[in-house]
Amino acid sequence: MNKLLCTAAALLLASCASHRAEITGCWVQPVPGQPGAMQGIRLLPGGKAESVNMHTLVYTGWSRNGNILTLRGKSIGNKNSAALTSRAVITSLTDGKLELETDGQKDAYTRVKP
């Protein structure tokens, strides 16, 4: 009986350790200099992406390869637009927090439930 209990406990512990937080969802952070305003990224299933409260940066897609998150879209300026591909290292991912690092710049996001 003890052996069965220990085996069950080990399997439960292994399943908890292998839990991988899902990256899809809506991730936001405060807008610098605008108290109360939030901005971010909505990562949709199937590789589609949307910008949240960022009118000059329009995300259209995303992909993940290990700990690398690639975002695709376009940057819109004064009557100009340019294709954009951005790669970031996922330094932390939990059910409620996402931390990305791009060229030494670290950004922390919080998951927002729909």
Helix count, DSSP H or I runs of 4 or more residues? 1
Biggest sheet, spatial arrangement of strands: 3-2-1-8-7-6-5-4
Give a short account of the largest sheet. Answer: 8 strands, antiparallel
Low-confidence stretches: 1-19
Helical percentage: 10-25%
The structure class reads mainly beta
Distance between the termini: 45 Å
Tell me, briefly, the overall form.
globular
What order do the SSEs take from the amino end to the carboxyl end, as H and E? HEEEEEEEE
Strand content: over 45%
- pLDDT average, as an integer? 86
Radius of gyration: 18 Å
Give me the count of strands.
8
Provide the descriptors you would attach to this structure in a database record.
mainly beta
Summarize the helices and strands and which ones pair or pack.
Blueprint: H1 2-17, E1 25-30, E2 38-43, E3 49-52, E4 57-65, E5 68-76, E6 81-93, E7 97-102, E8 105-112
Antiparallel strand pairs: 1-2, 1-8, 2-3, 4-5, 5-6, 6-7, 7-8
Q: Can you describe this structure?
A:
With 114 residues, the protein is mainly β. The protein has one helix and eight strands; from the N terminus they run H-E-E-E-E-E-E-E-E. It has one helix at 2-17, and strands at 25-30, 38-43, 49-52, 57-65, 68-76, 81-93, 97-102, 105-112. The chain has an eight-stranded antiparallel β-sheet with strand order 3-2-1-8-7-6-5-4, with no helix packed on it. The longest helix is centred in the N-terminal third of the chain and has 16 residues, at 2-17. The termini are far apart.
What's a concise summary of this model?
The chain has one helix at residues 2-17, and strands at residues 25-30, 38-43, 49-52, 57-65, 68-76, 81-93, 97-102, 105-112. By secondary structure, the chain is mainly beta.
